[in-house]
Amino acid sequence: MLFMMIVKASKNSEAGNLPSPVLMEAMTKYNEELVKAGVRVMAKGLHPSSNGIRLSYPEPEGKPVVTEGPFTDSNDLVAGFFLLDVKSREEAIEWAMRMPDPQGHGEGQVELRQVFETPEQE
């Protein structure tokens, strides 16, 4: 089963502030554990929304509207993600619970979402 662990953005990540060396070390160790267990498919951090582009579709079958960042509500933004290949929902939750606070300022928030898979992938 594939799960995306979505790391939500915060004011600090949107400001482009890098994590402390202590948090970087903890995240490196966490990533190494994911790799060693064979569950990490991919993990990436994202640039702040100030470098982002958003397309919205206000009319059915109409042309998309392009808006350049930054985007205002950091609670709705993504700072990074992990793609995990696990045996169960419970295992995905267990791995998410082991992650250090991804923002390091008590602002961290992680969302787990199962990825749709085609029958031949299951």
Written overview of the protein:
This is YciI family protein. Belongs to the YciI family. The protein has one domain (2-48, 78-116): 2-Layer Sandwich (Alpha-Beta Plaits), CATH 3.30.70. 25% of the residues lie in helices and 28% in strands. The strands form two sheets. The protein has a four-stranded antiparallel β-sheet with strand order 2-5-1-6, covered by helices on one side. A two-stranded antiparallel ribbon has the order 3-4. The mean pLDDT is 92. The chain is an alpha+beta fold and 122 residues long. It has three helices and six strands.
Distance between the termini: 7 Å
**Biggest sheet architecture:** 4 strands, antiparallel
* Order of strands, widest sheet: 2-5-1-6
* Multimeric organization: single chain
Give the rounded overall mean pLDDT: 92
Counted by DSSP, the helix tally is 3
Give the total of beta strands: 6
Protein name: YciI family protein
InterPro entries: Dimeric_a/b-barrel, YCII
Domain YCII-related: 1-117
Pfam families: YCII
In short:
This is YciI family protein. It holds the Pfam family YCII. By secondary structure, the chain is an alpha+beta fold.
Secondary structure elements and pairings:
Layout: E1 2-8, H1 11-14, H2 21-37, E2 40-45, E3 53-56, E4 65-68, E5 78-85, H3 89-98, E6 110-114
Antiparallel strand pairs: 1-5, 1-6, 2-5, 3-4
